[in-house]
Amino acid sequence: MGNNSNPQLVLPMLKPSRFKRICVFCGSSPGNKPTYQLAAIQLGNQLITGEKIGEVRTVSGMHQRKAEMARQADAFIALPGGYGTLEELLEVITWAQLGIHDKPIGLLNVEGYYNSLLCFIDKAVEEGFITPSAHHIIVSAPTAHELMSKLEDYVPKHNGVAPKLSWEMEQQLGYTAIPEIGR
């Protein structure tokens, strides 16, 4: 009782992030659980540094939009979401597997939201559809703080099958042109 000291919260010293820009994939609705929105807010608090946030650019279509986001990002994070979030997530995972980039990809696995996807990936590795080294393309954590820590420590372990590919391949391959369908 004679101790008048107030309890203090001791926070670890934050080292500067290696990331300048992180691309965040998320649903367009808040979902049914308040924890999804809370996790998004916590992630935002982890990412906001007082610098300019976001940027608007005109692009010719969805493919160019996604390629530009991926080109500009230093890392990717998926929050709980639906088909659009899953599609964007799987595309950057595939690009990593192909060696187009080696940027960290994180799942904010709020209340186990992504457990089924992670089990699917485990099964695909077990059945030989995904190489064991490509299994490590994704990092997952239940909290924003833990996920950011894992992303900061991420070192690619996979071997891309096409390491010489670049973001400019879309232009070289003519993705922006309308393809002709042969009969």
CATH names the topology of the domain at 70-156 as Rossmann fold
Mean pLDDT over the residues: 80
Specify the biggest β-sheet.
4 strands, parallel
Uncertain runs: 1-13, 175-183
State the secondary-structure class.
alpha/beta
> CATH class of the domain at 70-156, anyone?
Alpha Beta
Order of helices and strands: EHHEHEHEHH
Beta fraction: 5-15%
Description of the structure:
- The structure is a single chain.
- The protein has 183 residues and is of the alpha/beta class.
- The chain has a domain of 87 residues: Rossmann fold (3-Layer(aba) Sandwich), CATH 3.40.50.450.
- The chain is built from 6 helices and 4 strands.
- It starts with 21 loop residues before the first strand and ends in an 11-residue tail after the last helix.
- The N terminus and C terminus are likely disordered.
Indicate the topology.
Elements: E1 22-25, H1 34-47, H2 62-72, E2 75-78, H3 83-97, E3 105-108, H4 115-126, E4 138-141, H5 144-153, H6 169-172
Parallel strand pairs: 1-2, 2-3, 3-4
